[in-house]
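Deviation from plan, reported transparently: nicotinamide-adenine-dinucleotide complex.
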Amino acid sequence: MYINGEWTDAVHGSKRDIINPYNQEVIATASEGTREDTERAIKAARVAFDSGEWSNTPAGERGKTVNEIGRLIREDKEELARLETLDTGKTIEESRGDMDDIADVFEYFGGLADKDGGEVIPSPIPDSTSKVVREPIGVCGQITPWNYPLLQAAWKLAPALAAGNTLVMKPSEITPLTTVRVFELFERAGLPKGVANLVLGAGAEVGAPLSESLDVDLVSFTGGIETGKTIMRSASDNVKKIALELGGKNPNIVFADADFETAVDQALNAAFFHGGQVCSAGSRLLVEESIHDTFVDELIKRASRIKLGNGFDDTTESGPLISADHREKVEGYIDVGVNEGATLAVGGKRPEGKEFENGFFFEPTIFTNCTADMRIVQEEIFGPVITVETFTTKEEAIERANDTIYGLAGAVFSNDIAKAEEVAEQLRMGTVWINDFHPYFAQAPWGGYKQSGFGRELGKIGLEEYTEVKHIFRNQKPAPVKWFNS
Ligand code: NAD
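Because the crystal trials were delayed, the predicted structure below was used instead.
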């Protein structure tokens, strides 16, 4: 752990083994913190913020430091990517892509740090000036999940630092390695001590104090909906600001007039990339009835050919799931789907063969004959599972797509661009892709409608989320108002 500029063990000295999901080998041993460790880290961040050393550093200078972190990440890209693949099982090609995106995020927010000078607004009161400025919020608690460990951390760390905050980061206890490594780069980039602190350990023990503490001004959380609700409840006790990036059950709408090859290929990618362990995975496929049979036949054929294996093997297209527990959760949904009456068209089990014996592998799975009321259609499975439904009209597609508690992302495939744009406008989601799936980048905001959460990351708004807005009014001709005669 990294607290107040020093590498430190947990106060009580506990450790946790970090497991490679490909073969269950122990790849590292991490400190396992407790509440006391988090409290120490919060204290360090509070003192650092109140000292003003970082928040009063000219924004352009802060930006340079954040940029330098991006440069160091590029320099260490290969090592970071290898660490991410060891820790998550994802393919090395994907991890390399993540590292490029992460460096982009630091460089984007580094560049943005000194671009918003606030605004002078026309005051309705004579002889006065009125200006609106943005200031850092203060101490930020940041909690991240295991599916994109460093990427999700970067979306929080870069804007918080660029805006002049101090922070306590808590990565997922099962995938902390790249986050730890990046804190070493913070040191090299010259971040003052106490500005960025890192605590490791389980959510209820190390994460919970962040939303409970009066010394933390904002908690930004990415993870599951139930954890999000817990954080919201405890943050309400002290009216803490929170931002929640939660799950999704993201519709992928394919019209009959879509380019067939593109739509099939993208449907595979939408749902099975990183074993479907993606918050924006296109796990809910809605296909226009007239092409359903041909589309689904092709999808099944290709899904059964996806090459699972070691993320370090160049021919591997998808790695294992993250853990034994998580695979069991995904497996549980196979029984649910079958019992609900959906047709298990392909997959639904662990792959056979020596290579898969020790890893948490699960076959790409497609359920057909699904209906909107099924749990497998409504709940986030977070694994390689597609549910297929059909529709006959544009209106039906929109209604079905919006019919979940989530609102993170969705896509529409059609060569009728006017129709696709109309559907995109009607979807109640934070991101909609037309004739594509998955693109995200530092410049575009990311976040959810409905129970997928609130607050936005990335884009200009991603920096604003880490600021407070202040109105400063100045009377240029001060004089008594004489409201009271006494
Ligand atoms: P999770 O909610 O189990 O854990 C996320 C983090 O919260 C972990 O660091 C965990 O230790 C911590 N935590 C657990 N209990 C806590 C508590 N009581 N107080 C504070 N922190 C606590 O989620 P996960 O299984 O790690 O991640 C998968 C989920 O993340 C999926 O639902 C996925 O959709 C979501 N996700 C969302 C986005 C997005 O951008 N919206 C991105 C990635 C993942």
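Residues 92-112 form the longest helix (21 residues). We consider this an acceptable substitute for the interim report.
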